[in-house]
């Protein structure tokens, strides 16, 4: 992934294009395809394959735990980050008067439960200024009514990376709120320090280069009571088939309660393979390789007639940069015709740089963007 030979071998689909959209869809290495094939072979064994599925499940959980800084017992895998958040809010059993704080740079999965008419809690929005979130604005929202602060470590919208330690300190000093952190746009791309986080959630089809169909959940054992989901199912229950199965249902504590039914084993195989690939490559190495690309792209965009909607300083970014232009759709179509693939949505173009990208990719993108703007 970090040298040309490995890149060409592991990501053959990238040879003829400049792919800049890992924040939406990561490109899986060939090892992930091989994992899918292994699932198929194991599935053909019928019930005997279950033991092999369970080995993959355990291995995937161990890798997630290592990335989160937790134990295997403190993590689980559900179907997607949206499901994880719906289950998490169900666990909180919110009441009238409770408040949820979210930011306007967050993805809908993490906050829209609170906006449903069936949710009695009130959602308060931590609003960005000049495309960054400021601690004093968060502090003004916190109170003894704040039940949970749900935030993203890195914004999907513009790549802003929150100062996590300072955010945690502000929340702890001014409330007793739980902290739910979405690391979807950080996991596998930048090193993580998740100490003193109460709930960690990530999707699986972006920077960790796995497949759809996974939601990685982390709940420290000290917070298991708060995040135990009272959901029906069987995989999440202490004794789903016991003598009292028609009298009561009791969830396993903490993270285990988030997997309510049969695991999505094809995705689990992919997650295991992808996280193994990321771990062997090394997140520190990935960040070290990709950061100069982000810096070069950021500095190049500053010289062009576009509206930068990402923080202008490298230290406030991870792998994402976004900008606007009145003619953004035409610009995107031009880039796409040149086999350059950023993301476009409603006048916004977003560039996401991973370690399988190169400085040549950045230079090609900036050159064609300059041409499209002329």
Overview of the molecule:
With 374 residues, this protein is α/β, with parallel strands linked by helices. It has two domains: 117 residues, Aspartate Aminotransferase, domain 1, CATH 3.90.1150.10; 249 residues, Type I PLP-dependent aspartate aminotransferase-like (Major domain) (Aspartate Aminotransferase, domain 2). It contains ten helices and 13 strands. Helix 8 packs parallel to helix 10 and helix 9 packs across helix 10. The longest helix is centred in the first third of the chain and has 21 residues. The protein is globular and about 75 Å long. The relative contact order is 0.17. The mean pLDDT is 97.
Mean pLDDT: 97
Largest sheet: 7 strands, mixed
Low-confidence stretches: none
Q: What does the radius of gyration come to?
A: 21 Å
How would you sum up the global shape? Answer: globular
CATH class designation of the largest domain: Alpha Beta
Please identify, by name, the CATH architecture of the largest domain.
3-Layer(aba) Sandwich
> Within the CATH hierarchy, at the fold level, what is the topology of the largest domain?
Aspartate Aminotransferase, domain 2
- In sequence order, what are the helices and strands, one letter per element? HEHHEHEEHEHEEEHHEEHEEEH
Helix/sheet category: alpha/beta
Give the tally of β-strands.
Answer: 13
Q: Mind telling me the CATH superfamily name of the largest domain? A: Type I PLP-dependent aspartate aminotransferase-like (Major domain)
User: What amount of the residues lies in strands?
Assistant: 5-15%
How many domains? The number is 2
